[in-house]
Each structure stands twice: as C-alpha cells, then as structure tokens.
User: Fold these one by one.
Assistant:
Number 1:
Amino acid sequence: MLRENVSGAVIRRMPKYFRYLDELHQNGVAKISSRALAECMGLTASQIRQDFNCFGGFGQQGYGYNVETLMNEIASIIGVNRKHKAIIIGVGNIGRALIHNFDFYKCGFNLIAAFDADRALCGANIGGIQVHHIDELEKFYDKTPIEVAIMTLPKAPAPQMAERLAGMGVRGIWNFTNMDLKMTNKSVMVEDVHFADSLMTLCYRISE
Amino acid sequence: MLRENVSGAVIRRMPKYFRYLDELHQNGVAKISSRALAECMGLTASQIRQDFNCFGGFGQQGYGYNVETLMNEIASIIGVNRKHKAIIIGVGNIGRALIHNFDFYKCGFNLIAAFDADRALCGANIGGIQVHHIDELEKFYDKTPIEVAIMTLPKAPAPQMAERLAGMGVRGIWNFTNMDLKMTNKSVMVEDVHFADSLMTLCYRISE
C-alpha cells in the first residue's frame, strides 16, 4: 500500500474518516458517495478523493464507497486492528477519567496496566486495570513489552519519565502533561493533548 | 491591531507562543532573539516573524524581543486577560478532572458554575464550583450570562445541548464529547478535544 509523503493534515483526517464510517456502518448505511461523505464531514468530495489517493485510492467513483469495506481499509491503514499494548502513567483525575471512560480498544490499543508514584495506590484496581508502583516499570516491561505509554502525570517528572520510557523501547507517548516533550530519541512518536492550547484557541476566536 | 486573514495554523500557534514566553518569563529571561525562541519551540525564526507580522509585528529584529512585553502582547491578542465567564456541563470524570486540575484562569476564563442532569449531585461543591441541575441553566444564564460552555457530558444529549446553549447566546463551546457538533448558528465557535482522533493518529504513526 502507498504510504509515502502522506502529509500531517491527511494523517489527522484518517481517524475522522474512521469515526464517521464507523457511525454510518452502525446506522446500517451500506453505500455512500464521496459527495455525501464530504458533506457530512464538512470537506469537499475532491479533498476526500485526494486523501484516499495517498493510500492508493479505494472504492469506485460514481458508484460510491462500500461503507464497511472502506471503514476496514481505513482501520487497517490507521492500525486500529493491531491492539498495541499500552500502559498509563499517573492515576490522578485525568488518568482515571481515561481508564473509566475512554475506549482504548476501539482506537487500536489494549490498556494493560497503570503506574503511579504513590505507594498508597499500588495494588489498587481501577476499572479493571491494576496499579503498580512506578519503580516496577522496567521489571514489568521486561516481562510484557508495551508499545505506548499514556502520560497523565504532573509536569515536573514528565521529561525524565519520557526519556526513561524511550530508553526502555516504548514507541509512542500520548502526552497529557500540557508540556512539549523534547525527546533525545526522535523515533519515539509523541502525540500531545494540549488542553491549554485548545482553550486559548477558543479564547482567541470568541475575542475576535 | 491587524487581525485580518490570520490563518488557522497561526491562530493555533499563538497559545504555544504564550506558553513558552510565560515559562521564559517565570524563569527570569528578559530578552530573547527570534532565533532562540524558534529553536526552543521547534520553529524557524522566519516563521515566527511571519506569524507576528499577522498582528502588525512586535519587537526589534536584531535586538531580540522583550519577553514580558511580547508575552503581554500575545496575551492581549489571545484575550487571556478578558476572563470570559464559563460553565461546565457534566461533572463526570472528565468534568471533575478539569475542575480540579485545569487552570482556566490562566487560559482566559473564569469558571463560575457546573451543571449536571443527576439530581443527586446538585448542590454539591466540587473544587469550589457549585453544581446546579441542568434544568436551572436558563434561569442561571438570565442572571449571569456566560460566554463559554465546556461540554463534558455524554454523546447522546450533546447535540441538543449545544443548540440550547447557542439559543441562549453562548459564544463558544469547548467540546469534550468526542463527536463533531454541527451548529445551526455558525457564529458559535466550537473547539473540539477529540481524544479518539488524537490516539488514532498516534496509532497510525507507530504502525508505519
């Protein structure tokens, strides 16, 4: 499958396609034209075709796309079928909110453990996920290598933790620390969820 | 101040500038060149100058920027000094996590109340914020108009709630429902925090 020179903007739209197609599929829609898909997603039909062409293109123009087939193709491009192993570091409010409410499995991940620096929390079971002490991290990893760590810990220990994870061999970090992590190992992918940047963008827009 | 034709990408970088300048200021840095600022932010000096030119440009090239002045200019562009009134709708895990941990004030907002559909929660005080029943929303708004609503409620009631807020006169929605809200009133700004899209983007990147 083609995958070269796919721009960041196209990559960011793939989950949105998946989300919409999944909903259409659940609503029993079997076929959809690029025009109708574009309309419900707030894009243009030509943009959709261009996006899909980055991956070799799929579906038959004019006849519309088979929703289930297209959804599965995109799922496979994103890799949501891979169920990468993930751990969560920090079980404060955000960590707990994610454990309880977020569907990791649907997004391609299998959340297998949580870690925290607070010894009082160790051994606890939060929403089916066992909490280990952060000192156990390497020992745990040696037995069960994980691909991704979700960082929901405070800012101060975050940079060192990111380097520690990279050193262990973690391939991706989902970063909720509200700070930019500068990784020595550039092959570790960091995806930021910057609440402050998001809210300040809204602040700008309503202040205009 | 110039503000026309500012692209979405530039708008999204303004909070990041503010965040970095605030940190430099807190660390006692008084002056910084566009080159050094670019380096620590992972941008180029020319991009920074272009971004600032959208707002008329500030600082003296060659002499560097005065950190505090620049920070204040950007704060005023974003509007973080306005302290817009905000309410939060839905005090589940995400709602509580935001109330307890997120610095609304620093991002330009004054969080004044919370609402929930669960009568058992009404009257409760969460981190200094009083929880009202959702039926009280209009009555509350009549006395205390708010600019922004933070939607941390489930998906199902979300579209109707968004329209209700727009009808009341709310100008912005910070959307944590993980669904795209299609507003009838296009002047209401919606800023999405799509956890699923973010994690699936990471999934793609580590699957490459």
Note: DSSP finds eight helices and nine strands in chain B.
Number 2:
Amino acid sequence: MQERDIEKLINKRISTRGFLDKPVSQADLEKLMQLATRAPSWKNAQSYKLVFLTGDKKDQLLAEFKTEIEKRTEPRPHYDYETSHPSSIKKRMFKLGMDLYSHMGIDRKDKEGREAHFMRNYEAFGAPVVGFFYIPQALGAWTLMDLGILIGYLSLVAEGMGMATCFQASLAVYPDIVDRYTNMEGEGMKMIVGMSLGYADPNDQNNSFYSSRVPLEDVMQVL
Amino acid sequence: MQERDIEKLINKRISTRGFLDKPVSQADLEKLMQLATRAPSWKNAQSYKLVFLTGDKKDQLLAEFKTEIEKRTEPRPHYDYETSHPSSIKKRMFKLGMDLYSHMGIDRKDKEGREAHFMRNYEAFGAPVVGFFYIPQALGAWTLMDLGILIGYLSLVAEGMGMATCFQASLAVYPDIVDRYTNMEGEGMKMIVGMSLGYADPNDQNNSFYSSRVPLEDVMQVL
C-alpha cells in the first residue's frame, strides 16, 4: 500500500539522486500528468508542455550531454542561471552543497570528488525517464510561476504513486540539444528545466540526505 | 476528520471564490508554511517571502484597492500581465471566463454583471486572510518557478488542513499600495501575486464551479 497522506508525502519527498533500473509505464506517466495538470494556472491557460524521454532516446541524449560536458563546452541555457542572490540567500545555497558533500563523505577540498558527484546529474542519476518542461517563448514571469505550480503538484503526485523526482537546472544546460530529441525545434517553445523521474534506490546513500530549511520567520510574516 | 489523501485533495482544490467569515489562527498559518516550505527550490535558496495580512490591515488594504478600481486607475503590476499567448491558449482562457459566467448565470453580454462578479476579487471573496508573494527584485525566471512550486505545495497543504485558496493576479494590480501594508517598501523585493485564504463557503455558488483541463496530449508527450 502506497503512502497517500499529504503531510507524509511532503516530508518524504527529497531531490532523489539515485534511481532503480525499473521502467515507468506510459499509463503511469499519463496518470501522473492527469493529476498534476489539476494545478491552477493563469486564467486556466495551462501554457506548458512536458516532454518525457525514455529508453534509447533518453540514453542518447544523456550521452550527448556527457560529451559536451567533457569538452567543457560553455553552458547555454535558455534562461540564464541566476547569480544575483542577496548574500543571506547565497549562504543557504552554499550550505546545501556543504551539507550534501559532507553527507556523502566528500571533502570540501576534494574538487575531483565533488565534480564526479555532480556529473551524476548528467546521467539523470540512473532514472528511467527524463522530462523537459517548456513554455511559449513569448511568455514570461506569470507563465514561469504557473509552470512551478505544475512542478509542485507533479513532485507530490509522483511520491503518492511510489515514484521519486529530481528537478535539475543542470539538464537545461544545452537546450538546443534537448530540442532535437523532443522535436521542439522551431515550435516557438523554450525549455527551462529538466527532471529525472523513476523509483528511488533505497540503498543509494544520496537518498538518505535530507536538506534543511530556513527558520519560518525568514520567509513569512503575519501582520 | 479532514481529507488527507493526495489524489482527493487535488481533485477537491478549486479557485475558491467565496469564504466563510471564520478566522485562521497564527498557529495554522505557521503550520501551513512549515509544510509548504518543504517545496524544493534552486539550490535550496528559498528566495521568497510571503506576507499575510489579516483583520483591520487586510480590510484597509482592500478598501484602498476598491477606491483605486472605482477611480479606474491604470493597473501597475510589477510583472506586466501577459497577453502574447498563442491563439490555442487564448481560447482556453476565454473558455474559463465563459464557463464560469455561465455557471453563475451571468449572460456573456451582461457587462455590468460580469464586472460586479469580477469586483469580488478585490474583496478577497470575503477571505479572512490575504497573502502576498515576494521575490528579490534582482532575480528572475528560476526564482519565479521556485515561487510557483511553493504555491503548488501551499495550495494542497491548505486543502489538507480543511482550508481553501484563490491565487489572484488581480491582487497584484497596485503593488506599491500593498508594499505599504506589508512593510516591504525599500526592501529590494518585488511582489508578484496575491492569495485569498480561509475556509470555503459551501453555500456559495462560485464554489461548485469546477474548471476543465485540456486533453493530456496537448500538454505532454512521451518519446
């Protein structure tokens, strides 16, 4: 019997960094999206598209990523990675990395170890499915927020179906390559973020890492 | 006993447009955010702030909104409302309005009736709490998506606590007025969207409206 309680699902969800070699059926992907697309959006526009890659297509794409990364090709995401965070927020981002590497027993000075760990992003952590999220290129802030709402739903629906997710900016590093695999060239859509999807490997040490959150008073106020 | 099953909560959630005159406690707002902030964000940055207004402060703000609206002051949202949707998406947005007005028995030619219905947005549909979502003004696309993920979680956690929500671009129409109430003037933050929060009025006809979704093949593909 799978867990279905909202609170337990929220507390269970992590960025899963190790997946079992166990496929996800087309029926399960549809069920996942059937529920996730109940997410609200601006005037019910649903201005998003999600393309899933599986099997050989997924493997070939990841192989292309790996080649680019090994060549140290400059990242060229459609949406520039953000670097202008206020220093209080930069500290949180730094802490996440430190906490994760410490959990994995990787020394902060071990640059190679950290890089090898990070490279697993481009293997989709062994997931059987990768997904790519698109919005129309003419749209902006409101649509990106709507896409986020969909992602929030999707992450919890996946947990409720016994699956696991990892949303990865790293998979958005060469969107032009992705577009070739997703048949999105010339479709007027822009890809912002990728996702690994599948079943968590309970024996992967990455999956016992639980990230912290800032104190509530830093992100909310009641007046 | 409140509903806690993820699938039932998703199917239950609507944009609630009629609330009971029943307050939400500070403890419940904290519990709501405690769970919602488990939402994932870019490198765990949590680059958002949510300010809740209740009681007199909320009433005074809504009164100011009403005055502006009645004066037909031009909207001045921090994030321009989007109008460049592809025509296939425009149709969906149009359909939502038509479906809602038809459900409410408001004729599509009854401009006054439609306007009166829309004005309820500026009364927060009678909700005891309004919330305003902020991000640092230096940040953009990725942070807006993170904010959306938070909103997705929040909408479902609220349902799980027996509450209801309505996320409203309409509440973002005069952000400078909001900033005065939320003490956000000069804080380097930009407000994008508002939310009504409280307990749904089961006797409000608005709350028996259930919006449709496009066929799955329009928003997803498996390759």
Note: The mean pLDDT of chain B is 96.
